[in-house]
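Hello forum,

I keep getting stuck at the same step: I have a sequence, I want structure tokens, and every attempt I make locally crashes halfway through. Rather than fight my setup again tonight, could one of you with a working pipeline run this one for me? It's a single chain of 443 residues.
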Amino acid sequence: MKDYFYSLLRKYIGLFVLSQNSVVEIDPTTPLLVGKFPQGKVAFRSSAQPAESVNEFDEHKVVKIENVADNKPDYLIISGLIHYERDIQSMLAQARALCSQETRLVLTYYSSMWRPLATLASKLGLRRRVPESNWLAHEDVQNLLTLEDFELIRLDQKVLIPVYIPLISGFVNRCLAPLPLLRTLCLLNIAIARPISYGASKAEPSVSIVVPARNEAGNIEDIVKRLPVMGPDDELIFIEGNSTDATWKAIQEVQQRYGGERTILIDQQDGKGKGDAVRKGFSLATKDVLMILDADMTVPPEDLPKFYNAIKDGKGEFINGTRLVYPMEKEAMRFFNLLGNKFFALAFSFVLGQRYKDTLCGTKVISRSNYLKLQANRSYFGDFDPFGDFDLIFGAARMGLKIVEVPISYRERLYGETNISRWRHGAILLAMLVFAARRIKFL
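Reply #2:
Ran it on my machine without issues. Output:
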């Protein structure tokens, strides 16, 4: 039972902890978890820790607790300890002191509905006999995290069958346990939280605004004129893609006309689709914050400072626009497009574990450092997103980034025609949803 359960736990946590990530488990009870990760380390809070417990671990895996913060771990894991701690808040305060701003805390705990079965398993020798005094509700855990300056990012519920039964356990735990009703019966809860700092000084990062443009000649100059100043040294990057109108000529002209007033970089994409253009633009970007603005200007350039402030002030680490809060202009979105947006928002929120009201809004913001990490692990999902939106959404979800949505007033297109094919691209989105569900939700 123990080996099977920990193999599941490693798989679930391994969705977030990548091979290059440094991870430290605090007061582990077994080497079956972090000991299996390539850069996994363990640390013990008390020198009074039983020697036989410490001796289970390779000495190269053990770090002194006072050295953990210096190493700035990507992930800090506290597995099951809240059931035995007399003062959980103090334990979380100690953990907070070990975190950098980029560290993610992974906290695992068990559902109180399983308490009788856990007690029985201990009596039968299927698990260690330990004095379990705390069985907390999700709200209690979230409240304790908040008290010690952690923000809960996501909560996953896993494992309906913690013992290995050939054919049955794998099917039930992978296909049935994540479903909306059944997941409330799961044994294991995995909470991912990030440290937050109140009153911290806010840096003023500069922004690279990437504008993918195909057949948008009539909008190019207005983008330059209307784009507000955000950071101290912003850059505007136009990527033209296979246009049949004068878009490339318009881009060249605005660079010549306005290049003395602001930094404007221009290029043409190598492949096809918005996703390819976005990746091309991000490869040219040099600033701390990366931002996408669709060239159709259905999201007004004047709204971009809202996105900038959200990431600058630490409100989120992946900022997504949502067009479904404020009333839209009459011709801004067709009825079936609106229905599709609502369906995919609900479906992707379920799959990704964080709320999305509008997955298809083209305006998205991420720090350059997080994008480089996302880029390095893009192969997990593959490179088949023609839009560029879901490449970022999937990667942000897997990295445990805090996702925040900024409502915008969605405007009617004034020039040209949409580049989106409702049914063909809808079918692609559905395929991507199924693929993401298999890689994130139904593990």
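The chain has two domains: 2-195, 207-441. If your local run keeps crashing, start a new thread with the error log.
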